[in-house]
Specification:
By secondary structure, the chain is α+β, with helices and mostly antiparallel strands. It has one domain: Alpha-Beta Plaits (2-Layer Sandwich). 24% of the residues lie in helices and 22% in strands. The protein is built from two helices and four strands; from the N terminus they run E-H-E-E-H-E. The strands form two sheets. Strands 1-4 form a two-stranded antiparallel ribbon. A two-stranded antiparallel sheet has the order 2-3. A hairpin with a 5-residue loop joins strand 2 and strand 3. The chain starts with a strand and ends with a strand. The relative contact order is 0.35.
Amino acid sequence: MIAKVDKNTCIGCGACPSVCPEVFQMEDDGLAAAYVNPVPTEVEDSAQEAADGCPVDAIHINK
């Protein structure tokens, strides 16, 4: 599973790292990034939850 954050869509709300800090973090530009790929098996559910909870659908998960 690969997680990607579309920086052109991200609004920097911080929801994804609060749901799945093992994969997502906020960067210096104030936007989120997926810093661990592939997503570790043990956190795939929380990474998907972060993607599903993104208010602007900026997170894309490729399985």
